[in-house]
Amino acid sequence: MFQLFKKKKSKKDDRSLTTELTPHPNTRPSAGDVKNQGTSQSLFISPLPLPTGAEAADHNGSFIEVNEAYLDVGSSNHGKAFQVQAAVFIMTLIMIVNICLLSLIFYKEISRPIQPMSELDARFERKLFGSSASDLNITLTREPSQVLITLLSKEGAGIFATWLLLAGLCIYSIVDTTLKKARQRPLRFHRQRREVCFFNEGSDRPIICPWEDVVAWVSTSTGTNGANVMQTHTFGMAFEDKAADKYWFFTQGVPMPSMGLTQWEAIRAYMESGIEALPDYVVKRIGEYEGLHSFKANRERQYYSFAHSPKFWFKVRMLDFSESYLGMGLNFIWNVMCWWKFPYWVAEWDHKYSMKAMPSTIDDWSKPLPESEWAKPSALSVKHTKALTQYLSEGGEFMDYCKERLQPDLHAAMRAENKAQSDNASKTDNKEDKIA
User: Fold this and answer.
1) How far is the C-alpha of 194 from the C-alpha of 374, rounded, in Å?
2) I need a labelling partner for 61 at 20 to 30 A (CA). Which of 89, 113, 139, 161 fits?
3) Long-range contacts of 26-32 (CB under 8 A, 24+ apart)
4) Distance (Å, rounded) from C-alpha 239 to C-alpha 395?
5) How far is the C-alpha of 97 from the C-alpha of 64, rounded, in Å?
6) What is the 3-state secondary structure of 154-201?
7) Would you say the C-alpha torsion 259, 265, 268, 273 has a positive or negative sign?
8) pLDDT for 121-143, tens place per residue?
């Protein structure tokens, strides 16, 4: 998602070398910088789109569209079906357990005597009938309809209300993620212009940022849920809106930091070298989404694997249930308890609702350019891309290169830029003083 960050105005006295050498809201961080904030640690891998040595990959399925001119990166619906399956499975399991408990309580209630028979009642029955119910082993029981009504009106009502609350929370979570995704359009990386276009939520006004100015990072945050220490990992990119003096942030959760690096490397490879630089399996997956066709494809793949592999009775492997009869049975039960095709129907609805077309305000910018008009990489980018590629081939590390060779050049350029801005500001102040 995108988050807004307002840049703070810096005073002239604050433009010290120390401020320029560290990640700070007033100045862009450098590749190779590490920023610690609370329990979070962030490793910056740009600006300057340099090779990191990681493999180019798209594990999240966030590459939506690609051609010779641009690449769209956003949030796909991969994982939506499983989100619905997990929610429905939990609701169904709780309902089955509650029905079993209510059935057990019902059975015990109708079998329980209405009240213990006193000795006086037993004597009265003997005088009246010649024998008592206790002598004949007769158990006085409650009426089943009366027991059922009482049970459903008391225990059943509470259980059903709790289940409805849980179902409401699950539905809210499923719908909320779809609505959030629908409010934000994808990022568009135009390799021929060497620019990135992004839109604020609910806005059709495109904001264009130079490709070499994009700030990217991977971060790890440590927290606790009260019982265990947990870590969450994030891949993020920041885009400067110079006209509004703001930064916009695109963040995406990743299972581990290395996957954030591979995601960035895939974007960088496309922007620097085109579609040919992306692995074939990444290109084939672009534009794929989960839907009813996914359910059919998964079943056919599983049945084929089961039919053409050795048969076991009890062998079960995580994420692959096609190796044994037990696994196939468990998979069938799982699909039944998840309401069969229902999760994939929700995933298809999610895709149709959230994947909206880009606004017409970006049509002209998105068009391909003649090769003679393609933007060229900066001299600094060409220099360090070549040097870093050689450095990595010799066994060097990305971080070491950034600290030893890249950052001195970047900091010198930043100091020159700050000095130029300061000189321009001074000239403007002098002109205003003369006019006054």
Assistant:
1) 8
2) 89
3) 27/414, 27/418, 28/213, 28/215, 28/240, 28/414, 29/215, 29/217, 30/402, 30/406, 30/407, 30/410, 30/411, 31/402, 31/406, 31/407, 31/410, 32/398, 32/399, 32/401, 32/402, 32/403, 32/406, 32/407
4) 32
5) 42
6) HHHHHHHHHHHHHHHHHHHHHHHHHHHHHCCCCEEEECCCCEEEEECC
7) negative
8) 555 555 544 444 444 444 444 55
Residue with tokens 């060097």: 396
Distance CA 181, CA 249 (A): 15
Q: What is the spatial distance between Cα 79 and Cα 59, in angstroms, rounded to a whole number?
A: 12
- What whole-number distance in Å separates Cα of residue 159 and Cα of residue 98? 7
Cα angle, residue 212 at apex, residues 216 and 382 outer, rounded to 5°: 120
Task: List the 215-224 sheet strands across, edge first.
Answer: 2-6, 246-254, 229-241, 215-224, 40-44, 34-37
Stated pTM of the model: 0.71
Cα–Cα distances in angstroms (integers) from residue 378 to residues 131, 241, 271, in the given order: 108, 20, 14
Tell me: the pLDDT tens digits for 376-427?
A: 999 888 999 999 999 999 888 888 888 888 888 777 776 777 777 777 766 6
**Residue 92: how many other CB atoms lie within 10 Å:** 14
In one-letter notation, the amino acid at residue 427 is K
* Closest residue by Cα to residue 65 from 241, 372, 283: 283
What is the dihedral sign for C-alpha 203, 264, 3, 19? Answer: negative
Q: What are phi and psi of 176, to 5 degrees?
A: -65, -40
